[in-house]
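User: Modeling request: complex.
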Amino acid sequence: MRCIRYGMIGGGKDSFIGAVHRAAMRLDGGWSFVCGALSSTPEKSKASGVEAGLPAERAYGTWTEMIEAESGRDPADRMEAVVIVTPNDLHAAPAEAALRAGFHVVCDKPLCTTVEDAERLEGLARETGSVFAVTYNYSGYPMVRQARRMVLGGEIGPVRRVLVEYTQGWLATKLEETGQKQALWRTDPARAGAGALGDIGTHAEHLARYITGLEIGSVMADASSFVPGRGVEDDAGVLIRFKEKDGVSARGVLVATQIAPGRRNDLRISVFGETGTVEWHQETPESLVVSGLDGPTRVLHRGGDGLCAEARAATRLPPGHPEGFVGAFANIYRGVRSAIRRSPGADLDYPTIHDGVRGVRFIRACLDSARRGGAWVDPG
Amino acid sequence: MRCIRYGMIGGGKDSFIGAVHRAAMRLDGGWSFVCGALSSTPEKSKASGVEAGLPAERAYGTWTEMIEAESGRDPADRMEAVVIVTPNDLHAAPAEAALRAGFHVVCDKPLCTTVEDAERLEGLARETGSVFAVTYNYSGYPMVRQARRMVLGGEIGPVRRVLVEYTQGWLATKLEETGQKQALWRTDPARAGAGALGDIGTHAEHLARYITGLEIGSVMADASSFVPGRGVEDDAGVLIRFKEKDGVSARGVLVATQIAPGRRNDLRISVFGETGTVEWHQETPESLVVSGLDGPTRVLHRGGDGLCAEARAATRLPPGHPEGFVGAFANIYRGVRSAIRRSPGADLDYPTIHDGVRGVRFIRACLDSARRGGAWVDPG
Amino acid sequence: MRCIRYGMIGGGKDSFIGAVHRAAMRLDGGWSFVCGALSSTPEKSKASGVEAGLPAERAYGTWTEMIEAESGRDPADRMEAVVIVTPNDLHAAPAEAALRAGFHVVCDKPLCTTVEDAERLEGLARETGSVFAVTYNYSGYPMVRQARRMVLGGEIGPVRRVLVEYTQGWLATKLEETGQKQALWRTDPARAGAGALGDIGTHAEHLARYITGLEIGSVMADASSFVPGRGVEDDAGVLIRFKEKDGVSARGVLVATQIAPGRRNDLRISVFGETGTVEWHQETPESLVVSGLDGPTRVLHRGGDGLCAEARAATRLPPGHPEGFVGAFANIYRGVRSAIRRSPGADLDYPTIHDGVRGVRFIRACLDSARRGGAWVDPG
Amino acid sequence: MRCIRYGMIGGGKDSFIGAVHRAAMRLDGGWSFVCGALSSTPEKSKASGVEAGLPAERAYGTWTEMIEAESGRDPADRMEAVVIVTPNDLHAAPAEAALRAGFHVVCDKPLCTTVEDAERLEGLARETGSVFAVTYNYSGYPMVRQARRMVLGGEIGPVRRVLVEYTQGWLATKLEETGQKQALWRTDPARAGAGALGDIGTHAEHLARYITGLEIGSVMADASSFVPGRGVEDDAGVLIRFKEKDGVSARGVLVATQIAPGRRNDLRISVFGETGTVEWHQETPESLVVSGLDGPTRVLHRGGDGLCAEARAATRLPPGHPEGFVGAFANIYRGVRSAIRRSPGADLDYPTIHDGVRGVRFIRACLDSARRGGAWVDPG
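Assistant: Request completed. Predicted assembly structure:
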């Protein structure tokens, strides 16, 4: 399979996630970084691009310039996909332009900051037929795929109760006041659109939907800004009613907080079904804990015997050789690559713009519920 | 200190918790089991009492008989305290009779099934001056006491977020249909008054209040009966707003479920403050995990150096020699004993009728909120 | 079953293990503490006895006095068993006297300080027909019994490799210089007979033999006294060759150290067979980890479904309600009690004087091997 | 820094470790894969090379051909370093040829199968001035580097006791009979030179030396072939006496076994010093457990505050985003790259041929000791 030539928007020096995307593509092995508009000012953008190894003429000053210039290049050489890793408020415009110019798009989560933008992008992607991925990267972990397969395959019976927590501590103080770049934009309502719910809550929501296959019927949220003067919520608790499936209306609790001292990147989920349970923790991602109604707890290991095809396909190393965050991220990119190349029979499992729209609706519904002081809200 | 002579109501053959109370008192060492009305019929009651080692004449047929007969005995010999371990609907009446007859009372949780009964008992206990304990036994664990001391002492700053879960799996199927005694009464609305919220949710609520020192301002609950035909809720998710303290209105999420396959008796709590975190898990009760804003996670060990006086006092063995459930329960009894004997300077830390009333109000508020389909309810 | 009347030798104020023995017997419930000679001087001994709740006339000044006086009492009232919890050098003499006077004996480990004494006691016990237990208490844990049942039942195939570690840190400094009583006698060659090997190594050796059913063929040991000026070894590593069984000569590694900072009472064992593995850790004693040649790791829980009769019989509480050290110790006492009362069909599983002799031989063999600078020594 | 052009010997289709080396170099980002002789026959070798993405003319049939052809290329274009990932018996010859032709060498462990070859290579590397790395990759983990820094910096005092275990289960059955390639050569004495000691024991030995800075004075080993008919040891227990340092002669126990069902790649180490302890486990590599003489256990997290410069430099992602095996491996390659490019002030921490020689001597000494039925052997 030929490498996919991609251009990146965002991902310059102070970016955290841009470098992760590039490492994931390097690990996947089927991607070629050909151009970029990595920073917010033309000079910095060009300098960042060259520093990241791009030829000077394809280290563009702005993303509009990049899309225009690349559109004019020889098809055998121009970029095929655009990877967008800017702050949330700068997702929709370049995504739209990229789609209109016929490129595939990979966009970091959340898809964008308004439901309206999200829906317009979804419609546009449908029209153009482009591949449009939203990097809910945690669904790339092999043991998450194993969990999904087991739940969808009925191994724990109809789902009744979901507990999903995403807790971090890095925003427990007013880090944005120190000028830290990540904190600055992520706590700025104009740039982030939302706080903990948008930054991490939506990962939790996607993970719950991914593993269970359930859709969210309504949410009841309580959101707070604990750090004085912060413009976005830094903590939220959400009750969830999932849509009925197999005659059961599952209930969920979702917690998203960034003011939890000592928590690093603690995404964990427990899914309780009628006859069993699956549990996974992102910080020890190599195992999946499975219980039945009785008998011993079973711990399944990545790479071990008896895992499903999806988990095996997402595995690069033997058991006991920890893979990790970049490996999972690379699995998302592998799915995107297969979709772009239309590989028959290949792994096409990646989060799509449909997931992206769902995520934006979830965030809005939670914020609505919280603002109304307690009301069940259907995300739509 | 002379042993306290106690009589037990309930705790016959099929009881789980009665035997635990007796073992806890044996381990504490300051209690003498002198009489009882252990079962629901006079014959069984007498037989159970003799089997449990009571002299035949003090193995009573009914609790009314016991209270009357013991009241007539020589004060140097008659029972001093009544331990009530019957199903929830049979707490209030014997407790009231015992108070009126001048006895101290130890009552299993929840205190009773209605707020009205709870408040009447509280008033009565105030009048009689009797000691009245409600066995929220998890507050007897040394590392829970350490957690409380650290939080109250400001070591993690004002509390912002509490996560408390109590999950069990034993009621994931309709166990009550098999005739299992524990399941029978605990899922019977008439006898239990409530389901998961009353059986275990109230433990979680007490633990959260005990460690944080916070009072609950309002609750928003979603409760379900997942097992078809069950008359009480077997699963609940609760959002909590605590009353303001130190200028912060902490938020909580409480989960109580008994339909979680693979979960045994999984009570766990994380308390996130402005500057740190404490976390405890009942199934590995010997340690307390403490985090600050930065630096390593610290794991404190029962019996280890540097623990507070309360944790040291609640400890019987050196570190690394696991104590456990009965040891924690015995610590509650030690507090009750000190209170009854009015030992100056002794450990008087035990859950009182005040906690019992709070628990009953919490259960009612959650059920109200759930019934109203989502509303913030002040437990009062 | 009538309570067994016991007298205790040792176990006064500064004793750690005496109080544990008494708590274990209280928890078991079938024992009555009727007399004692708890301390090393007559006055302290009497005072300690009264303080421990004995009637003044049976709080003896010395153990010789106790044995003589009790022998003269009415058989319906005199003690039936002697519990010896003195330092190691004071085990053999009272044990011998107790046997000669017709009493049953429970002796803390190690049985005594010389192989000669051990063998003489074993012969004497055989002659008198007395029950003689040596409290290798870790074999009382339910999940250790489950491990034994599984290994002896062939569930992991013939055993190939055993790893057993017992590590503590309390003697990492010269604690004996501070006057701490436990450190004083345990590091005194005259009173303890050996250091880490005798104090904890022998527990590890018994646990390995208990779970595997294997006998030790020879040992190769390296022992050190890391704390300057200490008269006994405080650290040892031992290679073990077990006697052939099922055509396989299993190999073992045993580590016993008391100079491991941060380790509390860390006894852990892994037994690897041809087709599976069992692993247990004393500080989290409620679970047993079991692996096969492939498939998931299984975690078995105390009190859970599917455990063997021996594990179930050793269990007092439902799963998830941690039992612990005293509960396991009480199980040893229950076995002893059944043996003394000759209960047909009862649990008779307790470590006998045979195990005690084996332990003393193991200690001697290791010290011999170490002294000889490396030689395989058969403990005999 | 310009990419380093490398050629690979071995690493074709059935290879496990070759692909890991290439992924590690991709993740490091400073390497360019320009040529190879990946398989054992010319055709397969060429086909493998093309499949791996090499241009046909640099997909060589044999390593001799590769070294000769590359030596003749323009210096600006020819390979600079040779990466050797063949079975153990095919390390020495290509390494020697590569050195003689002036190339740098990266060789998988163990360096080779005889001490004589090892020493000759060491002398040759000294003469040529080439960089020669041996991929003891576990020393690339950030938290291993933190452990080393803490121990060498005196934070746990002089080391007294080391416990290091490397246990795997994949060779518990006669896997070599199924034709599995990895099992075939690793259990073949002619190709592997040794069994568990050479394959994984030497990793454990290196890790212990790396973290403690101690040299091994003598070893006492017991080695077995548990699987009938296997020509190499599949299990070994080793007592170690380290050379004196700071007045203390530390003792070690090393276990290397490949017949442990349920163990995947379980390398773990505990280092006990006079005043503290560090502990690390490869399967959960993100944390380091540190204890002092008293107080809480501290768990340090990769990426967290307060880590040493070496650990920070070896880190690519924020805490809580698991890195893993390939990341650690890439850190080794980064050190090699810096050494080749002679970057001033850069991280030059990588295992050298000196470590490789030490490893081969250790394996020989253990096998000697075991063959002699128990003798302390100085590896030299």
